[in-house]
Amino acid sequence: MMLFQSMFSSSSSPFRLSFPGCLGACLALCLSVCLALAATPSFAGSRIVGTGGVSAIEGAAGGGLSPWAVLTSTASEQEIGVTAATTRAWVDDYRLTVTSASVNIYDRVEVSVARQTLDLETLGGELGQDIYGAKLRLFGDVLYYPWGIWSAGVQHKRLVDGTVPTALGADETRGTDVYLSASKLLFSAVAGRNVLLNATLRNTDANQGGLLGFGGDQGNRSWMAEGSVGVFITPRWIVGAEYRQKPDNLSVATEDDWQSLYSAYFFNKHLSLTGAWLDLGDIAGLPSQHGGYLSLQAAF
Q1: How many other β-carbons are positioned within 10 Å of the β-carbon of residue 125?
Q2: CA-to-CA distance for 135 and 228, rounded, in angstroms?
Q3: Of 33-42, 53-62, 128-137, 142-151, which gets the smallest average pLDDT?
């Protein structure tokens, strides 16, 4: 803990971020395509509103904390959809900002990019990472297939600066998560309301999602379980909960599981707003991190 504090004690922290050209170009391209598709809404949008979920903090379609099996936007077969999102999460001692964009190709492949920036409000300084993701729909459909939709995904993560994570004992400054997700919408399951279920199994060595590096003195790669449930109060409004199991690889920075209570409203097929209450447990020696979450998403 003292090591972590001392490395961020200066108000002129050396860890201020510069936006990498590659990621910036990818995000700019996706945002440009969003604007272009807005002029031709028939290009995508055959799927029912809400069936693309929202943008999770790592850029993939899902809930806030976890990827789901659904693919981004409302693009169906023979359509291409693009999604952009901006997210802000704030807990007692940290602030997380995420900018992400994703592309859905024929409702079969999803490609995403995201930049995460973690402001260390109490300790001072900043951490960041870039995330490049891909998801493949294996089979099924979230609405009508008996066993729902199944997808496999990969997320490659690279720290902007690995000085602090390696000082804390992380083995690597980049890593790759792989996961398998299944999602299913149950019609009229609770008081006549539709219920969305998701389960994800992730193989990872990421500490705090990767922001504190990968691997450590207490472990390396392991399988983690993630789950989500949501009830559609109306066809455009869903409330629910998420749970994300976490590895605990660093002896100097105990890591707890993440959980949230969320509410998402889809104004139409193109615009949604998600809010949540977060319980992230201990992060880098600072205990009981609770707070809020807001994410605005545009999809075409």
Answers
A1: 21
A2: 18
A3: 33-42
Domains and CATH numbers, the chain: 20-299 (2.40.160.40)
* Gap between the Cα atoms of 42 and 39, Å rounded: 9
Which tens digit of pLDDT belongs to each residue from 90-114?
A: 999 999 999 999 999 999 999 999 9
Residues with Cβ within 8 Å of residue 156, at least 6 apart in sequence: 131, 132, 133, 174, 175, 176
AA letter at 215 = G
Could you report the per-residue pLDDT of 14-62, keeping only the tens digit for each?
A: 333 333 454 555 555 555 545 554 444 445 677 888 889 999 999 999 9
- Which regions of 191-281 does DSSP assign to beta strands (E)? 193-204, 222-234, 237-244, 258-266, 271-279
Can you tell me the distance from the alpha carbon of 270 to that of 298, in angstroms, rounded to the nearest whole number? 5
Give the pLDDT mean for 66-77: 94
